[in-house]
């Protein structure tokens, strides 16, 4: 009974996705039988950079941070996964190892699909593949939009522009403010802005004094 309920839940989720919905019903049924669901605690790692690329994840609830590190252990990139997203996308066609670390930012739920199954449907189902490419194109557009906001020579201005990006892409309305629904650490804001944590912190302090943002318990709210 539990397995049947999970299969129905997974089928409903897949049918609600613009790309998976293009699969034949028989294929959706088959996938619902191989997909697992997992609840992940806040702070729990989902996979490590350089782990074998064995699974792709579909975000059901919660938020996940993806980030990469260089050989010196410094964080070089960071991005955020919200419900309905598929991750990771980089390497999904033929990558052998994950290019990122993934950690849950709150109690989250994901569906886990073996990468061999994902690659199989990409190869054999044209309509799905075209729709999945549109998903990837949308993510690329978001990445380009962030890149455009970090070309300014002023580090402080880059931080402000990245905050604008976070407001546009992630913030949700709560009464009279818009709030990013997950924690943004100063070191993450610094990486996104290609600057230092000290500069990111000073910009946040200035914007608080300008009554443009609130920053409590690592949660950013836009006034």
Automatic annotation (TrEMBL):
GO cellular component, one term: cytosol
InterPro entries with a match to the protein in the record: cNMP-bd_dom (IPR000595), cNMP-bd_dom_sf (IPR018490), Env_Response_Regulators (IPR050397), RmlC-like_jellyroll (IPR014710), WH-like_DNA-bd_sf (IPR036388)
PROSITE patterns named among the record's database cross-references: CNMP_BINDING_3
Superkingdom assignment: Bacteria
A Pfam family per the record: cNMP_binding
GO molecular-function term, one example from the UniProt record: DNA-binding transcription factor activity
Domain Cyclic nucleotide-binding: 19-122
Protein name: Crp/Fnr family transcriptional regulator
């Amino acid at each position: 009974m539990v397995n049947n309920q999970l299969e129905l839940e997974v089928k409903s989720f897949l049918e609600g996705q613009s790309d998976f919905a293009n699969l034949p019903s028989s294929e959706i049924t088959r996938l619902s039988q191989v997909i697992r669901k997992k609840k992940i605690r806040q702070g729990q790692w989902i996979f490590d950079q350089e782990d074998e690329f064995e699974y792709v994840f579909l975000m059901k609830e919660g938020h996940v941070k993806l980030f990469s590190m260089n050989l010196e252990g410094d964080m070089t990139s960071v991005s955020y996964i919200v419900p309905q997203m598929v991750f990771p996308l980089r390497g999904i066609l033929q990558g052998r190892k994950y290019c990122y670390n993934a950690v849950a930012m709150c109690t989250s739920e994901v569906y886990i699909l073996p990468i061999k199954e994902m690659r199989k449907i990409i190869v054999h189902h044209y309509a799905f593949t075209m729709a999945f490419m549109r998903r990837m194109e949308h993510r690329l557009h978001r990445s380009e939009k962030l890149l455009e906001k970090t070309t300014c020579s002023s580090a402080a201005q880059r931080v402000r522009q990245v905050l604008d990006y976070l407001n546009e892409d992630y913030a949700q309305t709560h009464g009279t403010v818009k709030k990013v629904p997950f924690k943004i650490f100063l070191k993450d804001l610094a990486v996104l802005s290609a600057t230092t944590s000290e500069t990111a912190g000073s910009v946040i302090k200035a914007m608080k004094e300008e009554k443009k943002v609130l920053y409590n318990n690592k949660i950013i709210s836009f006034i």
